[in-house]
Design goal:
166 residues; alpha+beta; Nuclear Transport Factor 2, Chain: A; five-stranded mixed beta sheet; globular; disordered C terminus
Length: 166
């Protein structure tokens, strides 16, 4: 009697599939903020809240030091009061997944319009930890951004897949 030699199949997602899902989630952030849901209390916001790691920290240009998720929500709420017409538009988004380390980085370039003729370019870096939960966010806003998110990632020496997720 012989045993069935059928190879087992696994449903382990590829780095590109993981990147696609992380990109999908990351692209929700500007939409939620454009909807003025600074508390991420809407159904769409709750999906993101569920992916935030307890040790999440953020750095925002123009604000001192690191802040927690709760502090970041307060800042966004205040920004909505100060800039009620602010609108974020994602111009590019790439995912870099390192399955062996259980980490990923998402780079998003944003156009931020505060009033009709005044806008900034911003580069946002989101990091994912071993449990595939958001644990870090950094946003740098500049008037002129000469490098794309991908070239920025390459220039920092990251050893991540450079497969852009489109």
């Amino acid at each position: 009697m012989t045993e069935n030699a059928t190879p087992s199949t696994t449903n382990t997602p590829t780095p590109d599939e993981i990147g696609e899902e992380l990109k999908r989630l990351a692209l929700e952030w500007p939409i939620i903020l454009n909807e003025r849901d600074a508390d991420f209390a809407s159904p769409r916001g709750q999906v993101i809240r569920a992916t935030i790691a307890p040790e999440f920290s953020a750095i925002l240009d123009g604000y001192p030091g690191k802040m927690s998720w709760a502090e970041l929500l307060q800042v966004w709420g205040q920004e909505h009061v100060e800039y009620p017409n602010c609108h974020l538009e994602t111009t590019s988004c790439q995912a870099y997944v390192d399955v062996k380390k259980g980490t990923a980085k998402i780079f998003m370039e944003l156009d931020m319009k505060f009033v009709e003729r005044i806008g900034l370019k911003a580069l946002t870096e989101l990091r994912i930890c071993l449990e595939w939960r958001w644990n870090y966010s950094e946003m740098t806003a500049t008037e002129i951004m000469e490098r794309s998110a991908m070239s920025y990632a390459k220039s920092t020496g990251d050893q991540y897949s450079t497969q852009p997720i489109t």
